[in-house]
Amino acid sequence: MGNGNSLNEQKILSYMGFASKAKKIVYGKQGLRNYIRSFQKKKLILIPKDVGSRVKLDVIKHCQVFDVPYIELYCSKSTIAKALGKQNISVIGITDESIIEGILKLYQ
């Protein structure tokens, strides 16, 4: 992981914090499945590096079937949970379109 990646990760964590404060995040198995299948135009799933392999494969499979972009982050579940002010969070979806655009610009 280079400095560019870690700087982008910090920016993404900041965006995630904004989304959490605005109640624009989705988490939990059923919440994420409903979000991925929803008719919302812009969607984005964020997956931490240390999520379980079954969960990761399940989420990625659903993202591919429904053509939803996802980003595999270098940070851990605990780092994401801390940024969101939550506990035991692994995979999250962002529902705010401007935050999604900001995160995707960092990854282009």
Automatic annotation (TrEMBL):
<keyword id="KW-0687">Ribonucleoprotein</keyword>
<dbReference type="InterPro" id="IPR029064">
    <property type="entry name" value="Ribosomal_eL30-like_sf"/>
</dbReference>
<protein>
    <submittedName>
        <fullName>Ribosomal protein L7Ae/L30e/S12e/Gadd45</fullName>
    </submittedName>
</protein>
<dbReference type="GO" id="GO:0005840">
    <property type="term" value="C:ribosome"/>
</dbReference>
<feature type="domain" description="Ribosomal protein eL8/eL30/eS12/Gadd45">
    <location>
        <begin position="11"/>
        <end position="96"/>
    </location>
</feature>
<dbReference type="Pfam" id="PF01248">
    <property type="entry name" value="Ribosomal_L7Ae"/>
</dbReference>
<dbReference type="InterPro" id="IPR004038">
    <property type="entry name" value="Ribosomal_eL8/eL30/eS12/Gad45"/>
</dbReference>
<keyword id="KW-0689">Ribosomal protein</keyword>
